[in-house]
Structure formats: C-alpha cells, structure tokens
Amino acid sequence: MLSSVAPTQRARAGEQRPLAIASVVDLAYAAIRERIVAGALQRGARVHQEDLAVELGVSRTPVREALRRLAAEGLVEMRTNRGARVADLDRSGMRAAYEARLVIEPGAARLAAERRPPEPLRRMREALARQRRAGGGVHASFASNRDFHLALVAASGNQFLEQLAQLLWVARIGEAIYEVQAETPERMRLDGDEHEAILAAVEAGDARAAETLTRRHVATAIKRSPL
Questions:
Q1: Residues 86 and 44: beta-carbon distance below 8 Å
Q2: How far is the C-alpha of 8 from the C-alpha of 27, rounded, in Å?
Q3: Which residue range forms the structural domain that includes residue 15?
Q4: Cα–Cα distance between 76 and 72 in angstroms, integer?
Q5: Where are the alpha helices (DSSP H) in the chain?
Q6: Is residue 1, in this structure, part of any structural domain at all?
Q7: Distance CA 137, CA 134 (A)
Q8: For position 52, which CATH number holds?
Q9: pLDDT tens sequence across 106-146
Q10: In angstroms, rounded to a whole number, what is the distance separating the alpha carbons of residues 127 and 153?
Q11: How far is 198 from 210, CA to CA, in rounded Å?
C-alpha cells in the first residue's frame, strides 16, 4: 500500500532524521567534552563507553561518534582493541602548546584592540572578575584564566584563531600545569593584574600595547612552567 503522505512531506520527514541523530551526537560530544574540561574525566583515564552511554541516556553509537570527534581534536586517544582514553601529554607536547600560544595570542590581542567587539570584551571582564573572586583557589582560578584567554582570542573576530585557541586550551593546557605556574596566591593575583592591563589596552584600542602585554604574559608563563 502506498503512503498517503505527499512526496514533499516524505522528503521533509527524511531530512529531519539525520538532524535528530546528529543532535544526539552533538549533545554527547558536548557532555563528554565538559567532563574532560572539568576534570571529571582525568588525563590518561580510560573512557568507558558503556558507562557514558548509561549516564547520558543514549546508545553507544552517539558516544562512539562523539569520542571520534574528540579524538580528532586531540582530547581523546582511540586505541585499537583497547578502547579510548583521555589524552595525556608529555613535557614536549606541553611546551609546543605554549609556543603555539605565544604565536597566536599576541596577534589575536592586536586584532581585538583594533576591532573591540562588545560580547567577547564582556566575557573578558567577567572572566577577570571571577579570577579576582577566586583568590587562591586553583580550580576556579584556572577556569577563569582559560576563559579570559579564550575570550581575548574570540575578540580578534577571527574564527580560525579562535578554533586553534580552543584546541590548545582544552586539549593541551590543563589545571595541573597551571597549578605549578601559579605557585602562590600572590602569583595568581599578579596574573589578574596582567590580565587587567591587557583588557585595558584592548578596550582603549591600543593594539601595540595589547600585543606586547600579551606576549610578555605568555612568555612569563612559559618560564614558570616545568617544560
């Protein structure tokens, strides 16, 4: 028996299915990524697909697809016959990540000062305020520090720079290395002072100062790192 649904209606219904499936993968990807960023899934830890599927209320298929996407970003390692694990880094990998920041972020700061888009600047101010409130708390301080730098790059208005910064900060730069860099609550406060100077230069439209201050800030972080 032929369906009474018109061809155009059937086509529309067919178009909706992959969108629904893709949305489940997107949700699984976002949820697993957040667990990695927050440290609930620690670096080097095995990822149990079955457990994640149960936690997220989905089948293993979207979890597996989400893990493949995360593997392409460097957040997860897929190992033949051994499942998946959260990616870890050796010192050379961490140093390479900071060297990449030293190339990307100062230039992004220059563009940010030239363009000054309101929303990323608001995010920078909000991240700085959270960093001040964090005091000596490493977890909260790291999160606000990361958010400040990602907002700075977003303020450049360049989506490619933003994607690269996301990859570096999420997959390559973690709380453990920040804890070594921070050293003391006083050092964390100094980081906040440096962020405030960068933000002031960007808001003032001083591209040269924004670039110089950001380069100095990242270079100082490299010197304090066990790289």
A1: yes
A2: 29
A3: 7-86
A4: 8
A5: 7-38, 49-56, 60-72, 91-115, 118-134, 138-154, 159-167, 175-182, 185-204, 207-224
A6: no
A7: 5
A8: 1.10.10.10
A9: 999 999 999 999 999 999 999 999 999 987 677 778 889 99
A10: 13
A11: 5
